[in-house]
Amino acid sequence: MTTAILDAAEAEVAERGLAEASMASIAARAGVAVGTLYNYFPDRDGVIDELFRVRRGAISPRIREILDATSGGFEARLEQFLCGLLGLFDEHQAFVRVVMEASGGDGLRGARGPRPVMTQLKAGLETLLKAGVDEGVIAAADVDLLGRLLAASIRGVVLHALEVGQPFATDAPRIVRILLDGARRR
Amino acid sequence: MTTAILDAAEAEVAERGLAEASMASIAARAGVAVGTLYNYFPDRDGVIDELFRVRRGAISPRIREILDATSGGFEARLEQFLCGLLGLFDEHQAFVRVVMEASGGDGLRGARGPRPVMTQLKAGLETLLKAGVDEGVIAAADVDLLGRLLAASIRGVVLHALEVGQPFATDAPRIVRILLDGARRR
Amino acid sequence: MTTAILDAAEAEVAERGLAEASMASIAARAGVAVGTLYNYFPDRDGVIDELFRVRRGAISPRIREILDATSGGFEARLEQFLCGLLGLFDEHQAFVRVVMEASGGDGLRGARGPRPVMTQLKAGLETLLKAGVDEGVIAAADVDLLGRLLAASIRGVVLHALEVGQPFATDAPRIVRILLDGARRR
Amino acid sequence: MTTAILDAAEAEVAERGLAEASMASIAARAGVAVGTLYNYFPDRDGVIDELFRVRRGAISPRIREILDATSGGFEARLEQFLCGLLGLFDEHQAFVRVVMEASGGDGLRGARGPRPVMTQLKAGLETLLKAGVDEGVIAAADVDLLGRLLAASIRGVVLHALEVGQPFATDAPRIVRILLDGARRR
DNA sequence: CATGAATGAGCTTTCATTCAT
DNA sequence: AATGAATGAAAGCTCATTCAT
Cα-flanking dihedrals φ and ψ of residue B183, to 5°? Predict the structure, then answer.
């Protein structure tokens, strides 16, 4: 039942936005009465928080796995990481929508919850980029900016894919190529 | 008066978020009575929409000017454009905050308003990138993705600058360099 | 089972008050499920009403016994009655708390239940006072007021004892003395 | 408006009881919308608390005046005090009902508000009774119990008068006579 | 026009009650 | 019988909106 409720909440938030997802609409979508929600969660925040907690719980270890599974040189690993990441997001489209909804001005105000995933993602990127520095592929001075560009690019690609209804993962290799070698023709 | 109200709305949304910006708080900040808001706007959405419309009205021609003012080769123009753009955003920090707040899942739902700016920005980028293709600097096949990466990068850089409290414009040249020539050391 | 439920209800009302005694808390205290309450009582009011009915059923005959057991002259009997009554209340502290809780404006509204006890108590007092009239100890004209003063005094003494945590019965002789002979020194 | 709302709250509580007095019923009785209540009071407790505060504010100084206005010997003053008090309560019948409703198990749990009036009343009685001790009319040892009997008697008389719909003040002299000289015929 | 008190729909939350197991 | 999850009416509270002044 908790699962059904969280799924309903997720769909509701993805479709209508965090502020518009009322307990009544979540209950209706879950096919239960309002009161039932309160048999499983203390209050509205409890539902939303748990939604983020559970989804994070499903995604977080996968990100680590994807990172750990990368092998080869820096460039190959980065590409594998991005590819795996976007593939993972493909599997959690609904939640990705929620995160996009919720992550307007993160950090500018009380960010509700997707933060840890983004943080972990950035941490993974940083790990890889440092390996790239060690291999002499990229300059240490570029790590920070490059990390941010990569994170932003992932967001941009995901959002675009969401809008046009495509899967996410296809662009990963090209992103890596452009960010490493540039778009300039030679 | 409309201006005062929109300024108040902007400040309120930037500070508290779209959902928390009540008509009462906007009126209080503007130093008028709630009723007065309704003498100038049909309803709450009217205020928010007009806020976006007006700011867009101020920003749009500037974007075009910035684009038109670029000169030189493709790379130089791209850098000038980004630089000018980020400088422009620096002048509209409050509104940029509002946009960040509001631009969670644009297009996934009824996009409130920043869309056109982003669209125009993308259009400007596309114009430039096409010039790049004509000059033979970049491949036509990369235009679309590169445009999205640039747009996403701008968002990432702006958000980061907002969080750490820095001006936006400083990173523009490095972004252009990375996206054109790659971060790979040679 | 009914007994266990009523005991739980009594304890709950005594501790938290009538309004705060929920079916859930009563069930929990009785160690049964909520549904079980409804196998023995039609609804919440049914529980409360039955609580009063049962306790009255236990107290009523005792009051009669106490009255019947009184012997001697009017004054002695009155003192015995009061003493016995307060002693009886001592044995039913929890219920007395419930009655105090419930007996705000009895009769001003739908009196929940303690009424009959008070009525019987007043009836007993009246019987005694009439005996006093017959013996020529008190005037017939004073019976009514004296009855009310005695009843009120009992309430006041019980409430005070409950607040300071003392047994009830100790003050009975002094009350009788004051009401019969007055507090005036001679 | 505050007055109208408090009057409505008072009537509602007097008629239906504290727990049953909903904001909706208070609003309806006051002839305003629910929201209006919240323009004048922070929440439901705010209404109830203010009701008690205001009525206490009207009654408290009067009690003091009544006490200060008493003159003559102890007995005369006590009678004047009781008489004045009951007369005062006659003027505030509605609030007296509220107090009766609210003062079930005072002190046994969080007593909402009439407490101070009762406390002041008891303090007034104590002052008088001490004067009685000084005059040698009553014994110091009886002050405490006599005070409680008087307070309880007042409550009993008021409650009875409320139920039968009589004015309160008529019984005062007889109460004083009984408590001082006893009901015993001589 | 400006005002701000009044409004009431709508939201969150509670809890007596039901009923399939 | 006992259970306790599900129910939904009802309560408290908020806030966009209206309108008499």
Answer: -90, -5
Nearest nucleotide by C1' position to the D40 CA atom: E5
Comparing CB atoms, the residue among C102, C155, C183 nearest residue D142 is: C183
Nearest CA in chain A to B170: A145
Q: Which tokens go with B32?
A: 């008028």
The model's confidence at residue B109, banded by pLDDT at 50, 70 and 90, is: low
How many distinct structural domains can be found in chain C? 1
Give, as one character, the DSSP assignment of residue C114.
Answer: S
pLDDT at D133: 93
For residue A111, what is the domain's CATH number? Answer: 1.10.357.10
- Tokens found for residue D173: 């002299």
For residue C22, the SS3 value is: coil
Tokens of D61: 């100084």
Half-sphere exposure of residue C178: CA atoms within 13 angstroms, side-chain side: 26
Q: Is the dihedral angle over the CA atoms C153, C156, C157, C158 positive or is it negative?
A: positive
Q: In the structure, how far is the CA atom of residue D44 from the C1' atom of nucleotide F14, in angstroms?
A: 14
pTM strictly above 0.85: yes
E strand residue ranges, chain D: none
Burial of residue B134 (CB within 10 Å: 0-12, 13-18, 19+) is exposed
* CA dist., res. D122 & res. D118, Å (int): 6
- Write out pLDDT tens, residues D20-73: 999 999 999 999 999 999 999 999 999 999 999 999 999 999 999 999 999 999
Could you tell me which residues come within 8 angstroms of residue C49 by beta carbon, excluding any fewer than 6 positions away? C112, C113
Nearest chain B residue to A142 by CA distance is: B183
Q: Domain range for residue A111?
A: 2-181
Q: How far apart are CA D54 and CA B2, in angstroms?
A: 44
Is residue D186 domain-resident? no
pLDDT digits (tens, 9 = 90+) for D80-108: 999 999 999 999 999 988 887 776 655 55
Does residue B186 lie within any of the structural domains?
A: no
The pLDDT of C111-121, averaged and rounded, is 73
Which residue type occupies C139? Answer: A
Within-domain flag for A186:
no
Q: What is the mean pLDDT of each run of 10 residues along chain A (186 residues)?
A: 96 91 96 97 96 92 94 92 92 87 61 72 92 91 90 89 83 88 79
List the single residue in D105, D155, D174 with the smallest CB-CB distance to C145: D174
Q: Is the separation of the CB atoms in D110 and D172 below 8 Å? A: no
Write the DSSP string, B83-130: HHHHHHHHHTHHHHHHHHHH-SSBTTB---SSHHHHHHHHHHHHHHHH
User: Are there at least 3 beta-carbon pairs closer than 8 Å between A and C?
Assistant: no
What's chain A look like in SS3?
CHHHHHHHHHHHHHHHCCCCCCHHHHHHHHCCCHHHHHHHCCCHHHHHHHHHHHHHHHHHHHHHHHHHHCCCCHHHHHHHHHHHHHHHHHHCHHHHHHHHHHCCCECCECCCCCHHHHHHHHHHHHHHHHHHHHCCCECHHHHHHHHHHHHHHHHHHHHHHHHHCCCCHHHHHHHHHHHHHCCECC
Residues whose beta carbon sits under 7 Å from strand F? A 1, 32-36, 38-40; B 22-24, 34-35, 38, 43-45; C 1, 32-36, 38-40; D 21-24, 34-35, 38, 43-45
Residue with CA nearest to F17's C1' atom: B43
Q: Has residue D27 been placed in a domain?
A: yes
